[in-house]
Amino acid sequence: MEPNTQHPSENETRWWFVEMWNEGREVFKALVEHVFAFLLLIGALILFHYIFKFLDLPPERKEVLETIDFWGIAIALVIFGLTFLYKLGDSVIQDVKKRFRSEKLLKLQMEKVLTNAIGLEGQELKTFVNEELNKMAKAAKAKSG
Q: Residue 94 contacts by C-beta under 8 Å, 6 or more apart in sequence?
């Protein structure tokens, strides 16, 4: 009896993280990048906090440095939150634009094929194409929902 020499395909062994990154899911990439950058900044500010704790400084001076450290963390949180929301919104807008372009291209292709194959033109062609696209959209909604 021969040992099992089958190797799983590359797609079966990839990690979900790598798969999502390679597929180019922009929202996922923005989230990961922001989390890592934010953790790096917060880590640096926490390090400064502990350095201030061990320094032999007068209490007034420590208080000023700790206040600066606190506001640095708060401002970093706001900046990273706002830039993440901006990237999220931009990603949604880009997806809508792609969908709109795809629908427009499909409509133009249908009009070209129908003009050549059936001989429809003008308003009849536009009406027929719109009806077919509506049927396709209803079928897709029924299938997914």
A: 26
Quote the CA–CA distance of 136 and 145 in Å, as a whole number.
14
Check: CB of residue 8 under 8 Å from CB of residue 39. no
Lookup: tokens for 83:
């830039």
Phi, psi of 3 (to 5 degrees): -70, 155
Name every residue whose Cβ is closer than 8 Å to that of residue 87 and which is 6 or more positions away in sequence: 26, 27, 30, 34
Neighbours of 119 (CB within 10 A): 9
CB 98 within 8 A of CB 90: no
| pTM of this structure | 0.50
**How confident is the model over 100-117, as pLDDT tens digits?**
888 888 877 877 777 777
Block means of pLDDT (10 residues each) for the chain, 145 residues, are 49 62 69 81 81 81 83 84 84 86 81 74 78 82 75
* Cα–Cα distance for residue pair 139/129, rounded to 1 Å: 15
Task: Find out whether 67 and 98 touch, Cβ atoms under 8 Å.
Answer: no
**Nearest alpha-carbon partner for 135 in 100, 110, 117:** 110
Using DSSP, state whether 4 is helix, strand or coil: coil
